[in-house]
Amino acid sequence: MSAAAIPVRLFDRLVRLLVWVAAALAATIMFVTFADVIMRYIFRSPITGSFEITEISMGLIVFFAMPQMIRNRGNIVVTVMFDKFARPVQRAATVLTEALAAGISGFVAWRIWLQGERMMRYGEVTMELRIPKGLIAQSMAVLMAVAGVAFLICTIEVLRRDDGDTRLGREGL
């Protein structure tokens, strides 16, 4: 294994950990929904904040799972004309779109972070559980930055391939 591959492998481990967190959040949503229905209809006492737990968890699942989707190259791709171009053009297009996606991810992360700061400054919290909204937003910003790094790694992988292969799917360095 080359020295350049070590940080990528560590990053991929982090990404796998994030997916496990997303899975735990999905399990939490299922458990809370099930328990809330039981509590509401059998005991006439719903779980306080169950809607907020579900709402926040659903938003976080997207951001926790996004880096894994990017590393697996599971993003939506339109390949109607892509296969008709020569390999160098395909490679250039792939590098350009991956790099552009990294830049956009970084920009979005920055804007979400600023919105989170604003929410923290104003003391915005959820209605029932009083969870700081700024903390949630800033967590999403950090995860979006991780998604940007995932796009950068994918860009570097395409550039490092000797054969100019731009096939969809996961390939390492």
What does this structure look like?
It is a single chain. By secondary structure, this protein is mainly alpha-helical. The protein has one domain (5-160). The protein is 71% helix and 0% strand. The protein has four helices and no strands. The longest helix is centred in the N-terminal third of the chain and has 37 residues, at 5-41. It is elongated and about 65 Å long.
Shape: elongated
Distance between the termini: 10 Å
Rg value: 20 Å
How many helices in DSSP terms? Answer: 4
> Class by helix and strand content?
mainly alpha
> If you average the pLDDT, what whole number results?
92
Largest sheet, strands/sense/barrel? none
Please indicate the percent range of residues in DSSP E strands (runs of 2 or more): under 5%
Overall tally of structural domains = 1
Into which percent range does the helicity of residues fall?
Answer: over 70%
| Element string (H = helix, E = strand) | HHHH
Tell me the total number of β-strands: 0
